[in-house]
Amino acid sequence: MIKVVKPFWSYDIKKTELWLSEMAKKGYLLVGLNRWTSCFFFQQGKSKSVTYRIGYEQTHGFSLSRTLVDEGWTEVIKCGKWYIISNEEPIEQIKTFSVRDGIIKRNRTIMYIFSGILIYLTGIAIFNLSLLISSLFQDVPVEVVPSPMWILTYSLLVFAIAIFVLSIYSVVIIKKTNKYLTSEKTSKLQSGKHTEGRLSKEKEKQLKLSGKMVVKRKPGWMYSPDRLEEWLENMERLGYNLYRVSRTGTAFYFIIGTPRNVSYCADYQNISNESYFDIHREAGWKSVFISYSFLQKWTIWSREFSQEEERPKIYSDKLHHLKHARKVAFAYTILFLPLVSMYILYLVIFIAGMLNNGTSGLSLLNMIMYLFCIFIFGSFTVRTWLYYMRLRNRYDFQL
User: Fold this and answer.
1) Which parts of 114-194 are beta strand (E)?
2) Virtual CA dihedral for 252, 253, 257, 260, nearest 10 degrees?
3) What's the first-to-final CA gap in the chain, in angstroms?
4) Where are the membrane-spanning stretches (predicted)?
5) What are the C-alpha distances in Å from 399 to residues 273, 310, 396?
6) Which residues make Cβ contacts (< 8 Å) with residue 67, sequence separation at least 6?
7) CB 40 within 8 A of CB 22
8) CA distance 114 to 353
9) CA–CA distance, 141 with 276 (Å, rounded to integer)
10) Which of 91, 219, 266, 277 lies in disulfide reach of 225, CB 3.0 to 4.6 Å?
11) Distance CA 333, CA 378 (A)
């Protein structure tokens, strides 16, 4: 038996699975895993062609379903919430695989944590750099006081740099892994769109030059999704038929055609599984945009209806719709409020320094920069709560 230590193996699931298959081809078959020490244990035997699948069950224990057993999957390891299954059938003959939602959720939580650390450390670095630059351009002499505990000071600095690098590495690798894990599911979900009729870039360029296609940009629509829905529906009534939305979700491509009655809904979900999309598609809705960002999970739905029909709604229950709007407001408040608080603190410190040491061009520039950041991030938070208040007032009036 051999032991192999593989740090951060859970960050890149696909790479780990391929590595396990390569080990099996060399005659080393997986028999154990210690998730705390990241140690994999192998038993030497005959060379085999094995497909491995790593999974994570967050809420309940894993057990092989009858479908997976019939497909040739067998359980190799169950370690805490992690499990590894294997299949010795040729990969092209395997039609059924275990789901990945547990890993995607876990990865997203880790990314939120490391993203918060990145924002915090970046803010501290910017603040200290601003103070250093500001002091260099002032006439006040700078005195460097040696630290009485220089070993601790430099150790903390090295530790902070290590955490910063680890955070960047974690966010980049986990984002790449989540993109891979959701690629197959996303391609299936995107099947509800008219991708088969997608025009080439040259054809789009010709339509733009002829005036038959227009592009409108709506950055920040997710902070007021009801405004976006109203705008899209008005565009359809004017004969501007939505053709597609850019990958970033900020550019909307319209083909000038005939006026239509189309209902739109911008829906926010923490994580969207296949059943979420299947339910809406069975009800006649089409997904015209699905966000790829790990911080914002938005889907824009559309459904055409006739003049005689009542406007269809995804949220027919008013309380459910209000809870959704409140969830949006809370999500962006949690995201942006710490940033606003941090910049307010920096602004107060800068103003206090200006009162004591006088003003300079650089200090005024820093103050303007902090005011701008407070305004931008604060407006995002305020707009989400205004969206919630508009919805609540509308439903109170209807009741």
Assistant:
1) none
2) -30
3) 70
4) 110-137, 149-174, 328-355, 367-388
5) 33, 19, 5
6) 96
7) no
8) 32
9) 63
10) 266
11) 9
The tens digit of pLDDT for each residue in 33-64 reads 998 899 999 999 899 899 999 988 876 667 78
Tell how far CA 66 is from the center of its chain: 33
Dist CA 82 CA 102 (whole Å):
10
Secondary structure class of 90 (helix, strand, coil) = coil
Question: What is the DSSP secondary-structure string of 239-303?
Answer: TEEEEEE-TTS-EEEEEE-----EEEEEEE-SS--HHHHHHHHHTT-EEEEE---SS--EEEEEE
Cα dihedral 303, 308, 314, 316 in deg (nearest 10):
180
Residues 6+ away with beta carbon under 8 Å from 152 = none
Contact, 350 vs 128, CB < 8 A?
A: no
In contact, 243 and 218? CB cutoff 8 Å: no
CA distance 189 to 287: 8
Cα 167 to Cα 172: distance, rounded to the nearest angstrom? 9
Question: What is the DSSP annotation of 242-253?
Answer: EEEE-TTS-EEE
Q: What's the pTM?
A: 0.60
Distance CA 11, CA 176 (A): 9
Range picked from 255-264, 317-326, 332-341 for highest mean pLDDT: 255-264
- Bridge partners (DSSP) listed for residue 304: 262
The total of other beta-carbon atoms located within 10 Å of residue 103's CB is 21
Nearest residue to 339 (alpha-carbon basis) of 297, 296, 378, 367: 378
| Residue 163 token pair | 């955490």
The model's pLDDT over 90-133, given as tens digits with 9 standing for 90+, comes to 888 887 787 777 888 888 888 888 888 888 888 778 777 766 66
How far is residue 343's CA from residue 349's CA, in Å, rounded to a whole number?
10
Q: Which two tokens stand for residue 297?
A: 């999970």
Distance of CA 57 to the CA centre of its chain: 20
Sheet holding 39-44, edge to edge: 2-5, 39-44, 28-34
Token duo for residue 127: 């603040």
**Region at 282 (left for phi over 0; alpha for psi -120 to 50; beta for the rest):** alpha
